[in-house]
Structures are given as structure tokens and as C-alpha cells.
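#structure-requests
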Amino acid sequence: MNRLQYSKIIMGLVFFLSACSGNSGGDAPAPDEKPDKFIPDTPFKTLRYLYSISGDKTVAGMHNREPNATPARWTEQIKTVTGKYPGLWSGDFLFQAENINNRQTMVNEALAQWRKGAIINIMWHACNPALSQPCGWDNNGVLSSLSDEQWAELITDGTSLNNRWKAMMDEVSVYLQFLEDNGVEVLWRPLHEMNQGAFWWGGRPGPNGTRKLWQITYDYMTQTKGLSNLIWVWDIQDFGSLANDVNTYNPGDAYWDVVALDVYDDGSGFTMAKYNAVASVAGNKPMAIGECQKLPSAAQLAAQPRWTFFMGWSELVFEKNSETEILHLHLSPRVITLDEMPGWQQ
């Protein structure tokens, strides 16, 4: 036996033994296996779940806009069309007198949805702290503005406007504490669409702009109010400036858990450029479609697999999508509906 023949025999034995051990490359997984996903050491069951499905599946979600007196209206409409409930339920603290008075009704629904196994998302279209509350969807309310001087006062601790904002946070914190006392984790999405200048809180770039107000809000609610059931969702909109906005409006990695993109530019839709812009700042953290009117298709979700949930915007979903499109999406194997959720009860 020559040296070449001997070497071939030895190599064959090594290959055979490696195959028998089920590992063809040391500690590397076999070609048909995926490496373990990064899932952080966090007490949040919801957050661990989003990490676990990232890259594979997407939770179907639905927002339930006003009135807060019927906080599951649009979720029920999805059930009517598809035969399935969304895996994510969303509500809003809102700003009108009737809806402020029905905040407890809204959080009662959040509790009921949590007990059914849904992911809970809550928003807050807040009134301008420099003006009056309740307010409207107008330039004296949610769509109003602050002067530069008023903004500087708002973000300065102990001033009248700063204290007013804290008092408004005190009001909604009562309901968030109610949910915490009942074991409910909340995807908390205040000051949404931070790059959206139509809202009094948004469209102010720079370290003392909108992201400073986010940091103040985060610190007050987590430290002063002591809320420990909030998963912070930092949210921006799909403007043409998105590639820059993901950095300009980023409040800092320590200040958010999930990054979400609101997709309303139906002309461009769910482009890879938007997806990549969000992925560039997400790191290992979950990404989501925070709001949309035109729903993504199953094929688009397959091409952009890191979207961990999408949230349709109430009535707009039924205006911008056919019932067939809604049905096909919710029946897709890639999309998780309530009946497929793991449940949160111990």
C-alpha cells in the first residue's frame, strides 16, 4: 500500500466517523440546520417570542381606533373576513373627552386579549401639553405645534410645560399599572412616527429634539413611575428621508426594545430599501411594521423575513385591501393568528 492509498483510507474513516456523529464540521451545525437564534435574557415573554420568530414568521395585528367604548371592533372585523383573530391586538389612550373617559374600557379589553394569548400593543395620540386636554384631531390638538421656546421648556426638568407632560403621563400610567398588576406585558408605543412633523411631538431632529422627549418619557415612566411591564416600541414613518431618519431620530439603543416602521406610501410600498434601512439600526432587536393601510403580501413577508408583526390600521385595511387579499394573508403559513399563538399564562 502506497502513501496515497493509505491517506485516502484514513480520510474515508474520518468522514465516516464524522457522519455517524451527526456533525460534519466540528461545532458548526449541519447544512440543513439553523444556528440557535439570539434571544436575550429578558423577563418579557412577549419580547422573547418576537425574537424567536424573527426571520421565520410574522404575527398578524390589528389596531382598534376610536371609539374606546368598542375597543375590539376592528379585530372582530378581521375575524368576520378571515375566520381567525389577529395575534396582536392594539388600542390607544386617545385624546377626545369620550375616549379619555373610556380608557378603562380599553385596558379591560387589553387584559381580555392578553388572557386569550394575544400580543398587546398600546399607543397614545396625546394632546399638546401647551394647550388643553381633551382635544381634537386639529391644529389645537394632536396636529398642533410648539414654538422653539415652548419646546425648550418642555424638555427642561421642573418647568411648567415639563410638569404638565409629567402629569399627563401620570394619567395614563394608572392604566398601565393596572395592566402590570394583572400580569399584562404591553408593547408601548408613545410619540409614534417621530419623524412625522404633523404631530406636536414629531419632526424635531437633533439631540434636543423629539428623541430627547422620548428619553424623558422613558425615564419618567420606567424610573419615576416604576412601570416594569412596558416593551418600548420606537416608531418612524416611511418618508423619503428614512435612510437618514433611522439615525437622526434614534433615541439610543438603551431606550427601545423594538423598532417599527409605519408604511403609508402605497406608491412605493414595502421596498427592500425601507426594510434595509430599518434593519441597519435594528441590530439583533425585533423589527415590525408598526402601521399600514395596504397590507403586505405573504411573498413580501418571505422576502423581508425579519418583520415580526404587522399592524393594520383599522378601517383603512378594509378600504385598501380586498377581502380575498386579507383572507389569503391571514391564512398564509408565514402569518401567525391568535389560534397559533403560544399563550402567556403560567
